[in-house]
Protein: ELMO domain containing 2
Amino acid sequence: MLVYFWGFLYSNYFRFWLKWILRLLTRKCELQRVFDGSGAGARRTLSIEHSLESSKNKVLRNAVHAEEAEVENCVRDVMKEKKIEQKDTGFKTNLHITLLQISGYKRLYFNVENLRKVPYDSDNEEHEEQLIELWNLLMPHENLKARITKQWCDIGFQGDDPKTDFRGMGLLGLVNLVYFSKHYTDEARQILSRSNHPKLGYSYAIVGINLTEMAYSLLKNGALKSHLYNMVSGLPQMEHFHQFYCYLVYEFDKFWFEEEPESIMHFNQYREKFHEKIKGLLLDYDVILTLQNTKKP
Structure:
């Protein structure tokens, strides 16, 4: 209760006066001070995002909701409102990049969400081609005997027809699995092999779809902002979301075997423990979580 009360006082009273005093002392607005005090990356972008969202000025608040095409005009309007000379190219460039990152994160979530909402359709030729591609990438020396077959269990699906396993994450789950298998083929095959361990084995494809849900939820609640703002100087793309997913798959496999669960029946418990570990890493303002970072030189 005391923390909430202090937060209310700071947001509604003390913050205004603190900003006013600092402006008198430095002759710079809060946005200028943030840009001067920190380099490019999540720490700076998150600070600017918070400053704009907390502003009582409608022009500044609207800037965090700008679409990519509107960013340039928003930069001009913000500089006008804060009485910053348009010839200040350093401020203009930094604010432009920052607003692109903020806008890009929202757009990325929109695109990921739309892909998640697409149900797997066995009558859709493109969907079927991606599913067959997944098989061929993971099992290059074994041909599918039929479209509906128990062979799908060999790569970790639950039954004879994988389409039923994509219900929760839709096409996003399949796209993630294919991306990892295509761009990190050796790693994907190694992890699939490890997933068949007689004691510590798990269902590779099902766990992969589960990790899609984890990546999606972290994007949705904003936890991926630090990672993406550090990784991308501009607009985050779907490619960057897929790369983060690859990191989760690789790291979860390591985590699972290090923890040595008694059985797959404890999956949810260890899945949540892994989730908490990732959330903890993402609290670091300087974090970048990529698969490349996990490999030895």
